[in-house]
Write a structure and sequence with these properties.
The structure is a homotetramer of 131-residue chains. Chain A has 131 residues and is of the alpha+beta class. Chain A has a single domain (4-130), classed as Hotdog Thioesterase (Thiol Ester Dehydrase, Chain A). Chain A is built from 3 helices and 6 strands; from the N terminus they run E-H-H-E-E-E-E-E-H. In chain A, strands 1, 2, 3, 4, 5 and 6 form a 6-stranded antiparallel beta sheet that branches. In chain A, a hairpin with a 2-residue loop joins strand 4 and strand 5 (100-113). Chain C binds chain D through residues 12-13, 15-20, 22, 24, 70-71, and chain D through 12-13, 15-20, 22, 24, 70-71.
């Protein structure tokens, strides 16, 4: 089965004084890939928030940084979702430069009601997708 | 008359691969000083947005970058507001490292209605402050 | 003559509590387009810094914000460079959503020696391009 | 024994369209506290990099997000370092709003040689501090 992936180019904004990508920014890259996975299923966060009152909110993240990414690198971010109970999804993600694994992350995302920021069940259409 | 100013420390997150502060981040520093000026007058953007439905939105910015700031620098950001018509405020701002002028900026801020994002008049309590 | 342009998608990381793109982030988008213009000419900033000791550094920026960009927007950033004296380039840039002009910016970029951060002349191969 | 802590104010730049702090930005806050812990011991990253050729680089991070932080919140970030082998330090960190725990993080930091980005032993003066 193919794994969803999304390309990310490293720009100056992503780097720090050490000449490498700032460590928090890998989490931005991971979120871009999750967003594009969602979009590939026909949904967007702006529509989910505006029309259904659903926010996806990260409740846990674990990242292993193996090798630094640098300016101008062309990265690929993978995204493998699986259901985690009734209210959250776990995404296994990898940050690759060619065949080289630069970092991997497990990111757990929960559903919040947009108005109250209280947890809510995963919408049916999300459950259907991540099983 | 004294000028409002706010200290900002440069952290790794602010720097880029050139070893200096990334150019867009000076605008973040300037906005911190504007926010603290507002707070010094007894208001906050979260209260203004939540209770009065007012967002302050930047409509124009001009920045001159003279000397780079670097990691660990202690900067001071000044903030001199003046009224600019019925719907906006102009902030003259400087970014200093000791007596050294690193950058200066003119930032024009307008009022938007939080729901519609349409322009609205400056609230009376803001007009009273910036004359 | 065609104008160089580069697509940018708006992600959650780019937005702020007002539901719109944070004002400093438009400058990140503009810099991505300048970087890709440079790449389209066969150069990259990492190679220029590493092999030739040249950093491009923004010395001035003027931005007009006309309409807010929002989450999930597909933007296009244009980039029109012209030479500005012996040591800098001016980029006229626009941020578009379809035919709608959201913002425009004039960004002046100078050359610095990577080690000393002192100004230096534009390299010949840059002059040849922006004439 | 007292725990090192550092105050962080939430600004617009830290928030996202959900009205809460963007999840990657908690890692920026954590890094500010680590930097200030280091500074409280008389060192700075710029001096360590420039004079000793040492970069601290995050090799692992685990974050639990419990409650969202919002615009204008006054947070406190704690920082409890302990040695982890010969080449890395583990920081236990918490993000608090008053007595309320918003998030906690374990961040593992290793030493890299600034030029080569290769791992190196913790400098003696760091070992002396974190034992």
């Amino acid at each position: 089965m193919s794994v969803f992936s999304w390309p990310v180019r490293v720009y100056v904004e992503d780097t720090d004084f050490g000449g490498i990508v700032y460590y928090a920014n890998y989490l931005r890259f991971c979120e871009r890939a999750r967003t594009e996975w969602l979009r590939s299923k026909g949904w967007s966060q702006s529509v989910l928030a505006g029309e259904r009152g659903v926010l996806f909110s990260v409740v846990g993240a674990q990242v292993n940084y193996r090798r630094p990414a640098r300016l101008d690198d062309e990265l690929v971010i993978t995204c493998e979702p699986r259901r985690d109970g009734r209210a959250s999804i776990c995404f296994a993600q990898r940050i690759l430069r060619g065949a080289e694994l630069l970092a991997d992350a497990d990111v757990r995302v929960a559903c919040l009601a947009a108005g109250t920021l209280r947890p809510m069940r995963l919408p049916e259409f999300v459950v259907a997708e991540v099983g």
